[in-house]
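Worked Example 4.2. Consider the chain below.
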Amino acid sequence: MIKFLRNCRLVIILTTVPFLTLKTHHIYAVTTKMWTSTDQAEISKGKLQNVSVHSNGKFTLSPDKRRVNEIPAEYVWCLVADGADSLFAGTGNPGTVFKVSHDGNVEEYYKTPELHVYTLAIDSAGNIFAGTLPHGRIYRITSEGKGEVFCELPDPYVWDMVSDKYGNLYAATGNNGVIYKISDNGIPSVFFDSPFSNILDLVIDNDNNIYAACEPEGLIYKINPNGNASVLYDSDEEEIHCLAIDKNGVLYAGTSSGIPPVLHTPALPEPPEVQLPLLMEEFPGEPGNGWLNYVLSDDDTDVLDQPPPKKDAPAENGLREMPVIPEMNSVYRIDKDGRVREIFVVEDSFILCLAVDNNNDVLVGTGNKAKLFKINDKEEVSLLHNFSESQILDILSYKDGIKYMATGNNANIYQLAGGYSNEGTYESIVHDNKYISSWGYISWKGKMPPQTNIKLSTRSGNNKKPDITWSDWSQEYQLNGGRIESPSARFIQYRATLTTDNSETTPALEDVSIAYLPQNQPPIIRKVEVTTPRHFPGNESNNYDAPDTSKPSFSPPDNVYLDNSRKNHKTAPHGPRKLISWEADDPNNDRLEFDLEYKSVDESKWKELKRNVKERNEFYWNTNRIPDGYYQAKVIAYDALDNPSELALKEEVESNTFIIDNTRPVVLNLRAVIEGDSIDSHGRPCHTIIVSGVAKDEMCNITDIQYSIDSEDWQTAFPEDKIFDSTEETFLLNIPYISPDEHTIVINAIDYEGNIGSSRIVFNP
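Applying the procedure from the previous section yields the following C-alpha cells:
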C-alpha cells in the first residue's frame, strides 16, 4: 500500500498487553457458569460510544470528542497549525487546502488543480507548502492565501515534507524513493536516493538527523545532515508507513503491510510503477476519472454482520471491489541506542498515522475502521475512540493538550480536548450460552468518584443477532448489580452506561460478570461398535470381563488325532472375546458413566452386562458363557455424576447385529493317498501325498486353512475353488515328499471369528 489504507475491516488483537476478554469459566456439570469480561480483543468487538478500554482491564469515559465543521472533500490527508490558532487541512479530491479557525469555521484557503494535497509544511514566515500528487508539485501559499507552484519534482508523488531547524525543506517522494532538499527559491536537489520505490514518511530529531520510512522493504533509514545514511531498522513487514519521535528522542514506527483493495476504472496514460492506495485499472465500457477518484466506504458492521458482496459485484460509479488480504501490523519502539521492540499489534487493519502528545504518549490512528489508540510511557494501551469514518489519516498534537484527527471516507476533522465525555455506552458482543439458560446475578467492579455513575442493563433472545424478537433492555442495575431480569434465552447481551457531571473525572468499570444456568442436555452417543479384538488387556483394566479359567485354553490342542471317525474328533472352544466400543460426549461437559446390556436377536428383554463403566469408552467382553448366535449390545450413557437425580438425563444406542461364535471349526473326511512317480519343484523324482478333507463351521465362514508336516512351519492351503466364501470348504493338498519315513500332517481350519479347529493324519509310506 502506499501512504494510506489497505483494508475495509478492522479486528484488533493487542498481543503486547493483557486486555479485556469475554471469557466463560468452564466447569463440569449443569451448575452455574460465569461469563466475565476480561480481555480487550473480545471487548473491542462490542460497540463503544464515548467509552475507552484500557490495558488494566477497565472501561472509562473517553476524552471529549467533537467534530469540526464538515470538510467538502473525500479525505483529509494532513493537518498543520500556525502560531495564530488556525489549523490547515490538505484534502483529496479535490486537492484543496482548507483553513479552520479556532472557533471551528472552515473556509477554502487555496484550491490547487491537483487531485490530492497529501502533505503540508509551514515555515517561520507563515507560508504553507502543499505537497501534491499525482504530478509531484509543491505549492507555496502565502499568509494571504495566494498560491503558486513552488517546486516541480521529477517524481509524481510527494508523500511527506519536513523542515529542519535551519528552515531547509525536505520532500519524501515516490516512485523512485528519493528525498529532495529544496532551496529557498524552489530548486530541488537529491539529498538521499534510496534503492526502493517510496519514502513514505519523515521525522527529524534535535540533531537534524532525518529518519525515513520506506516501502516495499520495510526499512527505516537514519540520514545525517550531510546526507549519509544508515539502516536503523529492517522490519519483517513490507512497509513502514509512519513515524513519530518523542521528546526523549525515542522513535516509533507503524507498519501497513497487506494487499490493498483494488478498484477497476480506466488507467491514466503512463501510470507510475508505484501501487497507490487504491489502484485503478481499466473497467471496459466505463468512463475514467483518474487515480484515487473513489475509495471504499465501509458500512457499520458493529451492529449486524452483513453477508459478503458477490464476487466482482459492481459498486457505485461502475467500480468493483476486489479481494483484500489482511496482515498483522505493528508499532515498534526504537530507543536511541538502537534497541527495537514491538509494543502494539493490530490484525486486519493498517497503522496509518502516529503522533506524540504533550504527555509523551503515543497516539495511533488506524483504518479501515477508524480507531484511535494511546500508548503511554508504561506501554499500556488504551482504545480511546471508535470513529464512524473509515480511516484516521493524520493526528496533530496541538497546544494545551488538544489533539486533532483527520479522517477519510468521510472527510472530517475531530478535536479531543482535555476533559471527559459526559456520557458513554458500551454494548457487549452477544454471548452464546449454547442452550436456553436461566439467569442469575450480574455483577461488576467499579469506581465512582463524586458526580459519576455506572449503570448496567441486559437483554436476551434466541437468535444471535438482536432484533424485534429480543427482549427490551432491562431496568438498569445499580451499584452492586442484581438478579438479571431478562427472560430465559440462549443469547444475552449487556449494556454499560457511564456518566459524569464533572468533565475532570470519570467512573471506571471492570470485571462484568453474568451468572447463568444452562438447561441440562442429554448425553450424545455417536457410535457403538462390537468387534473381535486381537488381544485382551491385562487384568488391571476395570473394563474387562476376565475369562473363565475353568474352561479350555485358547491354544489349539496339540494331541488331536483323527482316524476319519467324527466321534473321536476332540474340540475346544477358541478364546471367547468381544470388544464393545463407543463414542460419546455431553453437550454440558458433564462427566458420563455407562451401562452395557445385551440380548439375542430373538429375545425382547435386555440383560445386564456391565454397570458404571467410567474410565474408558470400551469394554472387553468374555463371551465363553454366551451361546453361539446373533446378538445386539446396548450402551446407556448417564450424566448423573454431575447432576441431581431429578435433572439427570440419559441416552441409549443399540449396536448393529453381531455374531458370537466360540465353537471351533471341524476338519472332516481327512484322508491321505500316496501317488508315486512324481517330480518335485526341483525336478527330482519323488512321491506325492494327496491330502483331502472338508473344513466346516456352523456359524462363520472359513477364512484360512493351514497345514504343517512334522511340526515344520505352517503353510497356507486354499480350497478347491480357490476362494474362502462359505462355512464349508473342501480342500485338496498335493504334498511332494522324498523320505520314506513316517510323517504327521496337521490341518488347521480357522473361521471368521478366529476360532481354530485342528486335526491330523499319520501315515507311513
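The CA atoms of residues 453 and 499 lie 5 Å apart. The chain has four domains: 20-54+424-518, 63-260+325-421, 524-536+577-660, 666-763. Compare this with Example 4.1 before moving on.
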